[in-house]
Each structure stands twice: as C-alpha cells, then as structure tokens.
User: What shape does this take?
Amino acid sequence: MARRGRISDKMKIRKSVLPRKRALAGVILALAFSGIGAGADELPNPFFAMDTGTQDATHNTPAEQVALVKEVGFAGVGPIYHNAAELQQWLVALDQNRLKMFALYLELRLDDVPASLASVKEAAAALRGRDTLLWLYVTDKRGTPFDPNDDAVAVQALREISGYAKDAGLRVALYPHTGLFVQRVEDAVRLAEKVNRKDLGVTFNLCHWLMVDGKDLAASLKAAQPYLFCVTINGADAGGTSWKELIQPLDSGTYDVSQVLRLLRRMKYTGPIGLQHYGIGGDARDNLAHSMEGWKRLSGAK
Assistant: This one.
C-alpha cells in the first residue's frame, strides 16, 4: 500500500455483502452516536479524501478527481506525489474548485536518502504557503524493518526535511504504515521526539492501527496527542485481519469508528481527518457517497 496507484477492478467488494454490512454499520453508528453527539456540535475537523478512493475508470486525471471530491462534499484531497508536473495539475484543479490539498504523500527511503530529499524538497517548494502536510511514509530496504538502530539516519533526514518545510511554511507528518520502518503510531512518536521540531508530527491511521495493534485505542491516541497533525479513518470489521475487512466505506463494517472521533473530541483535536479507501474498487462516486453519509452521521451533522 506504500505506493498507492491505480485501484484494480479485481478488488471489488461483493455487492451482495455490502448492503448487510451497511445496515449493521448504520445500527452501530446510531447507537454509538446517540451517546456521543446528543446535544453536541458538529465536529470541527475538515474531512478530506485520500486519492486511494477518488480514482476509477471515469475519474482518472487530477481535475476529474477533484471535481468528484467537490461534488460529494469533501473539503479537499490527500494525493500521492509522483512528479512536479502532476502536482501542478492537482493544485490548479483544487484552486479552481476552491478546495485544499491537506496532505501530500511522499516516501522517505532510508536506503536512498539523497533521492528522497530531492523529491521532498521539490514538492515543498511547489507547495510553499499552502498549509499542506508533507505526509511521509518511511521505508528501509537495507536490512531488518523497524530497527531502532536506524533511527539516527531517519532523524538526520527528517531534520533536513523539517528545514524544507519551515522554509516553505509547511509541516511534516509521519505516516505509520504496516510493514514499513514506521509502522506503528508509537514508532512515529519515537522519531518525532528525537527530531524535536515543532513542524514535525505524526498521523494516526485507523486501518494500519487495526492491522498492527488494535488493542488500546485510547493509549495509542494519547501517545500521539502531543504530535498529532492528521488522522485517517474508514469503515472496518471488528477483528478483521485482511485489508478488505479493515478498509471499507465509512457506512460499512462492524467496527465502531465513533469511538475514534469521541476520543479525538475529548482531546480537542481540530486537525484534518482523511478518508482511506485503498483497495475497495468499483465506482468511486458511489463509494465516496457512502463514506460521506457515514461521516455525516459520525460527525453529528445529521
């Protein structure tokens, strides 16, 4: 999932299963939020769509994906960085539609730091003054993953990137990803503490947390709280072990996503919340519409 590309039609969810999951998810949302949102204001967090869910056969270019995101009601996008030319296409489309790029997904390779730094520096320059997060997933192909002995290399590179961000008026958010050097939110916090820069923080990704941890949500969010710049959510099945179970539209699945938002509200977290749709497949408009319906229930909008 680190290199998020085109979504394959081979990963479509069975249509016969989705209605039942959505019906059950609706009951869970109604019961859970009856105790959370009663009398509460709508969540203040902007809700954006990662480009894992904005692309399909009829929504391919940045302009087409941005138009879809606006139609469905999202505040903006969080795409992957491929090159400077495509980034400009995203920015032009977003400006024309008065939407925002909340985060740009970039790789930091500890086995090839110079190449990574060049890409990040190029992206940061293009994003100057846009209040976009440089969203870093960290890989290391030199040896055993998650080796704390490699922290020194990561910290040095992250301090360099923090400098690029500061010069461009941006911030950096580490993106925990299953199977990579930074795979747990606690790994991201460990590095953020060592880097010790105000403009470098972490992301809490629900699907990856469920895959690699899934035990004590409150403890993980508490650990992330001092550095929390971004959160991503999606529908999921409680106890799921595959991505099809752990990444679903937000109105589907048996996992109670409202508990994540309840804890964020208590933490007074007002930053962006992104929608993860990796691997769902099918019609992007339909999928995004279902997730927006789930978001409206969860956020207290209806």
